[in-house]
Predict the structure of Transcriptional regulator.
Amino acid sequence: MLVNINTHRRPVDGHLAALAGERVLCSEHRYRRGTEIFGEDEDAEYVYQITAGAVRTHKLLADGRRQINAFHLPGDMFGFENGSSHRFTAEAIIETSVRIMRRGSIIEATESRTGGTRSLLRLVTQNLQHAEDHMLLLGRKTALERVATFLVEMDARLGQPQLMALPMSRRDIADYLGLTLETVSRALSTLRDQNLLRFEGTTQRRIELLRRKELAQL
Amino acid sequence: MLVNINTHRRPVDGHLAALAGERVLCSEHRYRRGTEIFGEDEDAEYVYQITAGAVRTHKLLADGRRQINAFHLPGDMFGFENGSSHRFTAEAIIETSVRIMRRGSIIEATESRTGGTRSLLRLVTQNLQHAEDHMLLLGRKTALERVATFLVEMDARLGQPQLMALPMSRRDIADYLGLTLETVSRALSTLRDQNLLRFEGTTQRRIELLRRKELAQL
DNA sequence: CGAACCCTTGACTTGAATCAACATAGGTGG
DNA sequence: CCACCTATGTTGATTCAAGTCAAGGGTTCG
């Protein structure tokens, strides 16, 4: 099975047709919040680059326990860190636009441009590095340390904005950090009480980091 | 700094000289149990293949908490999953022999042989896959599930021998699984009491798996 | 032979999970 | 625009899985 056309989560037919042609190497597509972009064990036919929005990738255990491997933000590419078939599920966290490319054409492109798959190798190596750091977090850090690490990571990836607008819910953060959503909420409250951060306005997803250094050295 | 000659953990001068020459592309070296092969943040000058023994790679937090990323067994290569500098420390678990190659020559070799860095890419991708599976374990599995998963993994990698001789201590297993050594010991005792495994003889590192299927479906 | 590990087991503690209640936001349709 | 509903987030009370502390036996190795 190459493509499962009768599900809403696949690129629409028009995009497939375009991608199948010779001229068009990539195509834009939009996903509503909460929709699946690809599933675990599906063929890795396409590679994705986010132009707007945010994506989470996760694995599930049989009884529903979820581990989020990574969050992807605008500019990030994802979907090829895999082998030929996806090893996890990707979902749009919020309304998200992605540029979709055929996997094969990407590999050929990077190969001819750099005289090898080196840039691809670099991307996979970056993913590996992130995974290694995350294993240390999951295996050995306390709840407060995990949440602080998460905030510092997001802050850096968003370019240290004055105000950080997190796209993901407390549950997503929890499943990324190997915690429960209550524990994440409590840790954030603790950090707020220690004046390390501030919630902006009424929605709790807008956070201002007040003392980045102290947060980082947890 | 390319090579820190005055530490015992580096290849001896003879090997360095040989590696520097044109003819010899690789060299054999032996490490006593517990000795460091390379350290975190060192230059990744060499790539290693184990011919006998076992190696662990780990990261440390400032206060000494340790997370073991992976165990390496005979036949395994390690040391280039990194970028140009090592992102963790590698140590011999037991008396270990490794084949040492210059990193550069490996990359060239794989490139010329396969018309690209594809085989290298495959190796890094395998590492990434392992890391992703391990994140699920560390983030979401119970102690018993972690130990069972560990046993099944080792069993498979050792070729499902009738009797499995683990090279690593309970502490190593604990630091790999994000547990304490006591919890690992208790989990093993529980599995023994459930007749899922058996300790062979007096040393507790020889284990016979009695019902692999039931162990695997935890 | 002694010393340093290694492993197991028991008793107790604790950090995070679970269970529960409540507040608020945001989306939908009347 | 409002009323409703669901999803989201916080906080408190309680439980529990794993950690910590402690003791004792066994093995290995210099």
